[in-house]
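Quick question: what would this complex look like in 3D?
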Amino acid sequence: MGKKIIFLLILGLLLGGVSTTGFAEKTVTMLGIWGGGERDAFMKMLEPFEAKTGIRVEFTGTRDLPTVLTTRVAAGNPPDISALPNPGQMQEFAKIRALVDLSQFMDMSKLQDEYAETWIDLGSYRKTVYAIFISADLKSLVWYSPKAFADAGYQIPQTWEELIALSDKIAAQGKAPWSIGLESGAASGWPGTDWIEDIMLRVASPEVYDKWVNHGISWTDPMVKRAWELFGQIARNEKYVYGGAAAALTTSFGEAPNALFTTPPRAYMHKQATFIKSFILKYNPDLQPGVDFSFFPFPSIDLDYGTPALGAADMFAVFKDTPEAQALMRYLATAGAQEIWVAELGKLSANRRVNPNAYPDDLTRKAAEVLASAETFRFDGSDLMPAAVGSGSFWSGILDYVGGEDLDSVLERIEETAVDAYKE
Amino acid sequence: MTEKMSRSLSRGLLHTVIIFIALLWLIPTIGVLVTSFRPAQDVANSGWWTVFESIFSSVRLTLRNYEVVLSRLGIGRAFLNSFLITLPATLIPLGIALFAAYALAWMRFFARTFVFMIIIALLMVPLQMTFIPILQIFNKSGLAGTFPGIWLAHSGYGLPLAIYMLYNFISGLPKELFDSASIDGAPPFYIFLYIVLPLSVPIIASLTIFQFLWVWNDLLVALIYLGGTPDVAPITVQISSLVGSYGQDWELLTAAVFISIVPSLAVFFGLQRYFVRGILAGSIKE
């Protein structure tokens, strides 16, 4: 009797399993990195497309994107369209001919009209466009509380000297000017790499930055060393950082800005990308963007190089050339689609035809202006470096340096891993 | 008298140590449980243990995390998918392993030791290495993205350990049983069905728990072979998609974990009286 029930159960499962698999409907499979609220926003962007074309988008969001995508491409079973973690990965896929040339089905002149050249270059490999960007995060921002600044009579610094002078002034009053959070689980250290990259762009030309990213100059180069020293001037100064190095190393990046919004403030400034807005609002739901918290651009250091913009961006490429995938790709590139996407999240659109009114608040609009008006834009360097460096020794180097280790030995160690990593 | 005292003293000490170790093991789980009832703001601003400090003043506990998880997950379909994956992926390898272990332990055939060694060697193959070749095969045979595909994959990953453990148990059964059965004229299949199976219940129960937990908690294998579309995604895939790309909303995970843990606990407590016997099996020879 019991056996019969088990047998029937298995039979039922088999039939149930098989019956859900074979559907012939117009679909696009899509892989991305988004979850939670981001995923909801992404699905919302896809709704009009699905309604208009009748094509169903099967979206999978996973933070294991690099593993899953590489495996599926290698096995010949890629999704139709996938998000890519960074331009370096895009070039790898382009090299092995896993990507579809977008100029075959997309209106290139329209693309050039709607996107800045930087974006098109970043999505190209050997003059062929393989990827489009739908949104960006601007990293060169320092967050502060306008109220706290007004109460204490602080001015927004325009240059590095003014930034240090302000930090000294706050520290002299017995308060902490900065809140820094480097903890991010297995990825701990990455917020520090943004500091180094932003400083690099301000003490050297964009060409030198590119060289540094491609290991054209060594990590022990005086220019790289200077960038680290300037970072250390703030991050290793116990009087500057709330809680000192110990707090910087153990505070989660998402929770670090909270120190700005306590009464009295535990700290006054925090350097982080645009996405931090959602963390601030989540942990402090009563705050008004633009009123209770705002940002100023990370100031210039050597005036020759101005205030370049550092950022990361969300890119998509086509792996299977189907009519449905083509249609979806054309849709994703439009200003209309990106307006829905950025309205939900506070990300910045890559399409310059996007209506500024689509941004949810003045603060995001302001960030979009900073991004659009920047003379120089560079992609987050650690995302472009080989993983052994960009998400390995660079991250751990930041932790070691902030933890008090000698700079030369930190840089020599990163250089050692870089020599191996760039060989391949 | 003194002997009695020292005995009860040493037992008391033993119990204290055991309880202490058990508590130490439980601390992370308790932390997750407490966090799952705290609002996001509190999670960010103070540790979960602070709940106990101020237990009488202003404890702020909420069911919101559970509400969000239940409404977002599409929990019904995800649970069903998880069962659709886990039950066959537990029963199929167990069935195959039982036959194989019996044959390897009690039947004589060519290259028996060699076959057994190969199976043991397979225990050492990291499953990540197999993703690409197996996915290639699945693509060609149309098994990629289907439930039978993932049953097959999980069966393959589970078989070596299952055969190894069952072999150890079954080969330890008294030889006389088999001798007298064959003298009575029972063919091997009857011996398997009426002697080996009933005697192996404890080890079968332990293996069922192992394999069930392993498949139920699996995320990567499902993502690779099934993909993550809602009509096939198991609960682990859905749970992982609750968290944003920067790790935001992780307090939802704590609630989701306790929801997904329920079937595992049910299986464990349902089978645990066999489980203990299964682990002890073979430790004493009469």
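Answer marked as accepted. The first helix of chain A runs from residue 2 to 19.
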